[in-house]
Design brief:
This protein is an alpha+beta fold. It has three helices and four strands, in the order αβαβββα.
Length: 154
């Protein structure tokens, strides 16, 4: 009985202390200038999400230029040639420069998703808007992760 308790305790101890830790993506930069071109709705959401995470009074001042494109295409049609699914692809081209260190770079992020066509047009538009919001959230997270990785490498 004692041996069983000891082995189960050790097993749980090593299982819970396996060394896994979450990477801390603290934003160690502040966005000095943000220039966004492309789709207005996507740009508005992206700008708000990026400025929320920017710290003021930081040594790494960034200038960001983001160019977004939204491509909407037909994914599927049924037998009677009616559209049943659309695919939306958002492409973001990001150019950044760290003002204090005279370092610049660029990267691209592409996200895509599909949504079904509903019997009501308003439901279809809601599904499209919800998908766009999810894709913009993913893009903003990827931009922040890429910027944090690039700046931490400096």
């Amino acid at each position: 009985m004692n041996k069983f308790l000891l082995t189960s305790f050790l097993f749980l101890f090593f299982l819970t202390h396996c060394g896994y830790s979450v990477i801390n993506n603290n934003s160690n930069y502040s966005i000095l200038e943000l220039i966004i071109e492309g789709d207005k709705k996507i740009n508005y959401s992206l700008k708000n999400k990026l400025q929320q995470t920017s710290e003021n009074n930081n040594e790494n001042n960034l200038k960001l230029e983001i160019d977004t494109k939204k491509l909407k295409s037909i994914k599927e049609k049924n037998i009677s040639n009616q559209i049943t699914k659309y695919e939306i692809k958002i492409i973001a081209k990001i150019k950044y420069s760290v003002v204090s260190k005279n370092i610049s770079g660029n990267f691209n992020i592409t996200k895509s998703g599909t949504y079904n066509v509903s019997s009501r047009h308003s439901e279809t538009l809601n599904d499209e808007n919800n998908l766009i919001d999810l894709l913009v959230d993913d893009i903003s997270e990827n931009i922040l992760d890429n910027l944090a990785a690039e700046i931490n490498d400096l």
